[in-house]
Amino acid sequence: MSELVTQLEELHTGALAALAQTQTTDETRAWHGDYLGRKGKLTTLLTGLGQLPREERPAVGKRANEIKLALEQALEERQAATAHDEMTAALSAEGIDVTLPGRRPLTGRYHPTTTAGREIVGIFQRMGFYVYDAPEVETDEMNFGLLNFAPGHPAREMQDTFFTTNPDVILRTHTSPGQIRAMREYAPEPIRVVLPGKCWRNEDVTARAEMMFYQVEGLAVGHNITFSDLKGVLLKFFNEMYGEGRKIRFRKSYFPFTEPSVEVDVDCVLCGGQGCRMCKYTGWLEIMGAGMVHPVVLQNGGYDPAVFSGWAFGMGIERQAILKRGIDDIRYFYDNDVRFLERVA
Ligand code: DAH
């Protein structure tokens, strides 16, 4: 055996031992340089091949080749193993602990006015009313004139109405002008509509009054629409909204656009009519205005009052939420205090 073969075998053993020590991709790369690279130990050793007697060269060359292939193979395996170890280490270092409790994402929710408005509108939709969307910025004519407000009516005065720079264009003070728009769109077909939306009044803000608030208007016009239909529909509404067994009462009132006009009360949802702070010890809660549509208003809407009749009602949405959820101040609604908004959904 030539000296070179002994050296080759030693190198083989040594290289495998060194390879077994490598832990990282960098170390295996360095090992490759040390043994198999252009200036590596194996290459250097093989330059001695030319000095061997001719007849020894093929056997030694063959053995050298085997060792080279064996080392390359071993390197490949070691590289795969270190890469795997590195990945496992990285995964466990950066990994997610699935046993940790999650962080609850902050989700929004509906505003109490939205919830109450949808509830009200939903009840009427199930009774066959459809929703009519009317503008929040109105003409003085729509908001007052066509609703039969006399020219000097106090509601037109500066302290109640927000005007734009054009005095004929105002922020609507109630949803009732939508009645005219809905009638004009559908006359002479009979209609049943509800009109939810924002209203404004230039008033002092108190626990009971905001300058911006929401109403739902209702309107039914047809050939034989009666006051008892109004009563039946509203009783159904109150039973759906505040629970079965509700009592309602009508008190005579005045609105320019209805004749006769009424205020509608429901027996107190808190004390059931016994008398409490919420109903001011009367047993009744004032909920909405209503009445038979005034003939002049029907006419302005495009219906012949000799042939058609109708009724209408209007209620504040916040007021319903207040009664239903025992809120004692309307100012909470638009203060945007999340403690309120999160609690009263
Ligand atoms: N528009 C009235 C208000 O804002 C409420 C109202 C009363 C509406 C009687 C009606 C009605 O449709 O018939 O105070």
Structure in words:
The chain is 42% helix and 19% strand. The protein contains 12 helices and 9 strands. Helix 1 (3-21) runs parallel beside helix 4. The strands form 2 sheets. A 7-stranded mixed β-sheet has the order 1-4-5-9-8-7-6, with helices on both faces. It has a two-stranded antiparallel ribbon with strand order 2-3. The chain is rod-shaped. It folds into 2 domains: 3-94; 112-344, BirA Bifunctional Protein, domain 2 (2-Layer Sandwich), CATH 3.30.930.10. The mean pLDDT is 93. It is an alpha+beta fold and 345 residues long. The protein binds 3,4-dihydroxyphenylalanine (DAH).
Set down the secondary structure blueprint.
Blueprint: H1 3-21, H2 25-35, H3 41-46, H4 57-94, H5 112-126, E1 130-131, E2 137-139, H6 140-143, E3 169-171, H7 177-186, E4 191-200, E5 212-222, H8 227-242, E6 248-255, E7 258-267, E8 284-293, H9 295-301, E9 309-316, H10 317-325, H11 332-335, H12 338-343
Parallel strand pairs: 1-4
Antiparallel strand pairs: 2-3, 4-5, 5-9, 6-7, 7-8, 8-9
Helix pairs in contact: 1-4, 5-10, 7-9
What's the gist of this structure?
The protein is of the alpha+beta class.
Question: Which characteristics define this entry?
Answer:
345 residues, alpha+beta, BirA Bifunctional Protein, domain 2, 2 domains, two-stranded antiparallel sheet, 12 helices, 9 strands, 19% strand, rod-shaped, binds 3,4-dihydroxyphenylalanine
Helix tally equals 12
Mean pLDDT: 93
* CATH topology heading of the largest domain: BirA Bifunctional Protein, domain 2
CATH superfamily placement of the largest domain: Bira Bifunctional Protein, Domain 2
Number of β-strand runs: 9
> Per the principal axes of the C-alpha atoms, what is the gross shape?
rod-shaped
Main sheet summary: 7 strands, mixed
- The percent range for strand residues is 15-25%
Question: What top-tier CATH class of the largest domain fits best?
Answer: Alpha Beta
Order of helices and strands: HHHHHEEHEHEEHEEEHEHHH
Helix content: 40-55%
**CATH architecture call of the largest domain:** 2-Layer Sandwich
Q: Output the radius of gyration.
A: 44 Å
Bound molecules: 3,4-dihydroxyphenylalanine
Determine the structural class based on helices, strands and strand pairing.
alpha+beta
Q: Give, in spatial order, the strands making up the sheet with the most strands.
A: 1-4-5-9-8-7-6
Cα separation of the termini:
93 Å
Number of domains: 2
Give the uncertain stretches in residue-range form: none
